[in-house]
Amino acid sequence: MTGPITTGTDLARLRELNSLSVVRALRGNPPSTVTELASRTGLSRPSVDLITQILVSEGWATVIEPTGSSVVGRPARRYQFNAAAGYVIGVDVGVHKILGLVADLDGTVVHTVRRQVAPDADPQVRLAALDRAIADCFTKTKLAPDDLWALTVGVTGPVDATGRTTLFTPLPGWSAVDPVAYLTARYPCPVYVENDCKLAAVAERWHGVAQDADDIVYVLAGMRTGAGLILDGTLRRGYGGAAGEIGALRAVRWLTAPSHLENCPGAPETISPDDKAAWVFTTARAGNADAQTAVRRYVRDLAVGAAALVLALDPQVVVLGGGFSRSADLILEPLHRELQRLCLRVPEIRASTLGDESVALGALRLSLDEADQRMLSTGLSALSAARRS
Amino acid sequence: MTGPITTGTDLARLRELNSLSVVRALRGNPPSTVTELASRTGLSRPSVDLITQILVSEGWATVIEPTGSSVVGRPARRYQFNAAAGYVIGVDVGVHKILGLVADLDGTVVHTVRRQVAPDADPQVRLAALDRAIADCFTKTKLAPDDLWALTVGVTGPVDATGRTTLFTPLPGWSAVDPVAYLTARYPCPVYVENDCKLAAVAERWHGVAQDADDIVYVLAGMRTGAGLILDGTLRRGYGGAAGEIGALRAVRWLTAPSHLENCPGAPETISPDDKAAWVFTTARAGNADAQTAVRRYVRDLAVGAAALVLALDPQVVVLGGGFSRSADLILEPLHRELQRLCLRVPEIRASTLGDESVALGALRLSLDEADQRMLSTGLSALSAARRS
């Protein structure tokens, strides 16, 4: 039985897989020889050799020539991923703040920008502040517009496929704006807008407390309560971008849960709701009975929505994030007890440690995913060109 | 730039993809020529030629020699998938009945067996009845044990990775039995046990009203209320096999929803709860005010759990299945209205038309998936062997 089993068309598919394997084997590793890369990818040395040469000619890898002289054989040259070949930005556009992160293609953060925004700022003011934050990223890192490979922005409320939040958002007037169109007109790279809870969930799996998990329910616990879902390792966006919005259902009590903290007897009347919640947690920790009751009632209500998600999805991990996760010492244990009462199988509950950078970090991760796609598709065409020549 | 870009190892991956493509292009199509298969798969004619020859030698395809004589050129031989190369079984083990389906590798049902079981039957009696139902499948279809490629059984309650329902099941005593061990000792093929709502959801995407959808919330509406989830085209099992069990949460009202039907004033006291629900739907349809109120209250409670799933997952379609879906004319419209009130984005709601075969059909589909895997892995080794010779 003879005859070729593969054709040029068939090989294109294979080359795509192979070049991705080599890029992955280079990134996040010390400089590597062709032999090391072949062993790490399972590809042949000649395949790896060809792919690394193309990566070098495209500027995505650098060659490190062997130093010194070995007495045994000829020392091999090594290859290193050129993380500075491109940059990505992730921005959290919140009610009170704008937080932007710039990273290289390895995901290493090279600049952080943080600006306050008035909670009642109208959308044009908020967009202008976003624009200035991004401009600051360019100035401080001396990047040219073409150096930016992707820009992702996180906002509150369900985000549809066009990046708009027409169903609902607490950002004043934001449901009327088109942030993708606004940013695309200013920056030449692909622009994405995504929901803040979803991005925070992505961040927990990338750099947070859920790196080992493929099935994650992220609960944002703060003066608003929200959720982001990662299922089978994939961010669950939903058919219309509105997954995770279970908090809108009165029956699961997330709408009213924070009111137990806000209405705690004894709290100073003059401070903001956020500060009042912080006061309640601090006072409860110090032993105040009213504050402890308020926290207990808050957790009991938080647990109903969390239980609905746990029963619906049976995740490996529940991550407690958001501002109140700073008081995880008062929340985790009673939350676990409530879930034991309400659920058939209780997953592990872990408190986020990413602080208020989680949304911007998740935005950075989505930007890096886009950069990976670009690298892959450009790499593929380069490989095909090499093959033809 | 020279040197081979592929190696023998790399090619094994490609062959797996290619042989699967050809099997898929053969199945569910009329007898096809190599040219037709090449065009349908995008593979080269020599590749398809080699793969079809192996499929024929393995008994998975048959050759149809050209009949008559063509005046233009030599008529081509055609290949047909041999669906009778193997068979699969799917069984629904319910509280009241055991329903088994036998199908060939194309999924065409060749035999159906249905047996009554007493609702209070102890697990050994139920397993014996299951055994007799499967034996009936073998007898009536004249299958030998080796002809059976996979056996999947659907049961009520969350099923863990070992096929057991230790958390909870309404089948008396069933949480103590190990149905996979029981059946594996009797039949030489792979055996799977899965939750009934999950299997019904699979059936809706395979042969039911959700064939166009990748994101499906299936709601089983009957004297019990349950859910099965398909997300991104994949059945959501959950980390511990307990996904879809949101009905266990009192706050979403599925536990008590059917009681509105059971306690409807005027219903005959002597009939079973199931018959009472049927009586309520019939009487409501005839205009009885009490029955209409009972249905309205039932739907209002059903909608809370459905809304929790819709808000959490934002599916494309909600499928209303289970015994009460026969009364979809009374349920769909008020359910849609309630979801509009409770949800941010309301998906399409469709009533199942698969009747009481849906769980067994879903079990059949999982058995066919296993058969596909077997075909693929055996085909792959045959291809490798051919390559080596």
Automatic annotation (TrEMBL), chains A, B:
Location of the HTH iclR-type domain: 19-61
Domain of life: Bacteria
PANTHER family, per database record: BIFUNCTIONAL UDP-N-ACETYLGLUCOSAMINE 2-EPIMERASE_N-ACETYLMANNOSAMINE KINASE, ROK (REPRESSOR, ORF, KINASE) FAMILY
GO biological process: regulation of DNA-templated transcription
Protein name, per record: Transcriptional regulator
UniProt-recorded Gene Ontology molecular function terms: DNA binding
SUPFAM superfamilies in alphabetical order: Actin-like ATPase domain, Winged helix' DNA-binding domain
Family membership: Belongs to the ROK (NagC/XylR) family.
InterPro entries attached to this UniProt entry: ATPase_NBD, ROK, Tscrpt_reg_IclR_N, WH-like_DNA-bd_sf, WH_DNA-bd_sf
